[in-house]
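pls design
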């Protein structure tokens, strides 16, 4: 079989799009097939003719090209007139879907969107929600013009009621990838219900939100972006908690992104012994591009629960994969991640078209291979929302300290199924005094 051969499935997927397609389209089909099957390190502009001879020679060598040519000739014999450029673009899109289902043609807008996401940019309403004893209250605003909603009870965000929504979900609903305003329905202290239209403005998120110490000696750290210095900041916080007697921690990677593999390694190696293989990137010929192992025996001796969702991407998604499969003492909770684990890159196809496709694979310590087909599946899959009942209040005059902690914990995690499950597991491990070796 020729190394340029692409499956009959790809032929059936693309042949209907080839009405009147010129030879440049057929040649590019060969190029992308070659990219999928044999490429070791992909240049941004792949010149098939320069690397492997003339396009005519490649077409002649491929059984698929012969079949496509015969099909096009048959269609042309009926006098079908098809837009060549449109057919060319459709054919390339079909090829990309066959080789990388999550890949796509890359527009300037899409490329800018990916860059902004990696850098932590979002459009934010500047509203800070919090959970008091009951309801959801707006505890802070960014702009003075919205001071009238400060302290009000938040009822709806756009068309969605905030009841039974977790704090993380509410914060995310106030953000957007587009500069569109958000409509808030609020109730003031006198019981008046009003609707406020709040503009979202461009805002670059910090690496980390302010660390929280939760009841029962648990720490919570929300990650927004993994930059080069973020790994050191996270491990310093975990060290501080461990030294102060905290039992365990929650690392929230939901919606997080970033581009620093250095940060991934710095965090992961603190849960592994020296010499442990953490992860590697390999090209499509299975040759190592990057290999990272744990450098030191400096373990963080407390369990770590990691929260992920379908918006966890980039370096944050790589970190989730590595913590899940390469180290001990870590569990993942939430929903399957996005599948964009820094394995995709820009590949220039011709003067006009570029693709965003998987050109390498991520391999983790336990042997899992991430090739872009699926994301990271958590150890415990949870629902997006959590409809749970408040804790039963004691009828005693004197309330035990533990009951006070229980109510405080409930108010922090209510509505958040992922966080609640992670806290339940941590508290169960704590009750049994189980710690990572």
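designed seq:
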């Amino acid at each position: 079989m020729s190394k340029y051969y692409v499956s009959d499935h790809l032929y059936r997927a693309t042949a209907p799009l080839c009405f009147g397609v010129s030879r440049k389209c057929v040649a590019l089909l060969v190029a992308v097939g070659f990219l999928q099957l044999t490429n070791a390190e992909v240049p941004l502009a792949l010149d098939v003719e320069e690397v492997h001879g003339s396009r005519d020679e490649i077409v002649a060598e491929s059984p698929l090209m012969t079949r496509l040519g015969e099909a096009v000739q048959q269609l042309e014999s009926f006098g079908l007139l098809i837009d060549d450029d449109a057919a060319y673009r459709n054919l390339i899109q079909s090829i990309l879907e066959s080789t990388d289902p999550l890949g796509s043609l890359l527009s300037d807008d899409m490329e800018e969107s990916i860059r902004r996401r990696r850098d932590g940019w979002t459009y934010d309403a500047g509203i800070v929600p919090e959970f008091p004893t009951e309801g959801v209250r707006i505890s802070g605003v960014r702009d003075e013009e919205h001071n009238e909603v400060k302290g009000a009870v938040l009822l709806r965000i756009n068309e969605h009621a905030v009841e039974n929504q977790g704090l993380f979900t509410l914060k995310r609903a106030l953000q957007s990838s587009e500069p569109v305003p958000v409509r808030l329905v609020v109730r003031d202290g006198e019981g008046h219900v009003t609707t406020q239209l709040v503009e979202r403005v461009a805002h670059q998120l910090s690496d980390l939100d302010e660390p929280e110490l939760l009841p029962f000696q648990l720490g919570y750290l929300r990650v927004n972006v993994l930059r080069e210095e973020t790994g050191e900041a996270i491990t310093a916080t975990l060290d501080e908690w461990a030294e102060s007697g905290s039992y365990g921690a929650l690392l929230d990677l939901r919606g997080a992104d970033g581009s620093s593999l250095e940060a991934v390694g710095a965090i992961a190696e603190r849960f592994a012994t020296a010499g442990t293989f953490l992860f590697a990137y390999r090209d499509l010929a299975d040759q190592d591009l990057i290999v990272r192992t744990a450098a030191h025996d400096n373990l963080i001796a407390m369990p770590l629960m990691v929260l992920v969702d379908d918006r966890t991407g980039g370096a944050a998604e790589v970190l989730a994969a590595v913590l899940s499969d390469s180290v001990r003492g870590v569990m993942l909770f939430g929903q399957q991640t996005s599948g964009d684990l820094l394995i995709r890159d820009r590949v220039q196809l011709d003067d006009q078209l570029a693709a965003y496709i998987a050109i390498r694979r991520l391999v983790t310590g336990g042997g899992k291979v991430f090739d872009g087909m699926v994301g990271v599946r958590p150890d415990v899959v949870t629902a997006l929302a959590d409809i749970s009942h408040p804790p039963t209040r004691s009828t005693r005059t004197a309330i035990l300290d533990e009951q006070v902690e229980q109510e405080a914990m409930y108010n922090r995690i209510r509505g958040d199924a992922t966080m609640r499950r992670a806290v339940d597991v941590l508290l169960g491990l704590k009750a049994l005094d189980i710690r990572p070796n």
